User: Fold this.
Amino acid sequence: QVQLVESGGGSVQAGGSLRLSCVASGFTYISYCMAWFRQGLRKEREVVATIDNDATTTYTDAVKGRFAIAKGDAKNTLYLQMDTLEPEDTGMYYCAAKLWSDGSMYNQYDYNFHGQGTQVTVSS
Assistant:
């Protein structure tokens, strides 16, 4: 059974930092791409950052220069370092894994597995 389990969320003041982690289990193959998505209150889920199996990364404009996505030395871990957090970053953060190259890296519906999420709250 494939599972993605996120951790590291919490409440911080604006300007603070958090590091999210995602541990994947049940994989017998390397995913094509992994990503972090987030969903704010009354907002649609949006992609935050992606990393493919060549370690190529992409970021949504709102987080460029503040967030960094990375895979751990153990291939089943994914991180999101979030610095200079802003109240607009508040939301539930989800990691996701996409097994194949078809579809889009920016569309949550093209990902095969999703975690349950970890809450990030940034106060002003």
Notes: The longest strand covers residues 18-25.
